Amino acid sequence: MDVSEAIRTRRAVRSYADRDVSEKTIQELFESVRLAPSARNDQSWRFVAVTENDRLGALYDASFEQRAVDEAPVVIAGISTTPTDTMRCGIETGPVDLAIALDHLSLRAVEMGLGTCWIGSFDQERVTELLDVPAEWQVIELMTLGYPDGELAPVEKDRKPLADIFGFETCPK
Ligand SMILES: Cc1cc2nc3c(=O)[nH]c(=O)nc-3n(C[C@H](O)[C@H](O)[C@H](O)COP(=O)(O)O)c2cc1C
User: Fold this and answer.
1) Is 12 in the pocket of ligand 1 (CB under 6 A)?
2) Is 155 near ligand 1, meaning CB less than 6 Å away?
3) What class, spelled out in words, does domain 3-149 have in CATH?
4) Which residue, judged by its Cα, is nearest atom 30 of ligand 1?
5) What are the average pLDDT values for consecutive 10-residue runs of the chain, which has 173 residues?
6) Is 118 in the pocket of ligand 1 (CB under 6 A)?
7) Which H/E stretch holds residue 145?
8) How much distance in Å is there from the Cα of 169 to the middle of ligand 1?
9) Which of 161, 37, 41 is nearest to 99 (CA)?
């Protein structure tokens, strides 16, 4: 599978087969995360893969009882260790770095027959406590992971036309 096909095939998977994801597979996925770029190559991030049932159940509660979190055999947390750092453009590095890293993961997952769903709707304090994240760090995003219940195939996506969002030279309005 090439990158273009992985991009077209990835979709938010909220329903998962009753099948575990092996530690070896999870570690292979994180090799793609490890190679992701970051601002100043700081790599000021940590990642946690939650697989134990009790902790998964607590994460389900802490993310407002979403189906994807209920069904997924693995929930990943992307954590910034420097959440107040900014680039010279004034934008925080943490959310940018973590989004790139987890996007690497989501595309590599497709190639390996796995599905993911970004989870930004969660209680920061409860997840921080549950995963024993130091108070000065910040959980940027959660992501569910598992084998999809159903086929993963390129889908027509509900997206704005290119002409609305892209232009040469100046910003399209
Ligand atoms: C930053 C971010 C946060 C998201 N948070 C949630 C979430 O909390 N729960 C959920 O079910 N989907 C969540 N999503 C998934 C989006 O709803 C989904 O990606 C979007 O509708 C496009 O659909 P697609 O991923 O199937 O292409 C999130 C996506 C992103 C990028």
Assistant:
1) yes
2) no
3) alpha beta
4) 118
5) 95 97 98 98 98 98 97 98 97 98 98 98 98 98 97 91 96 95
6) yes
7) strand 138-146
8) 30
9) 37
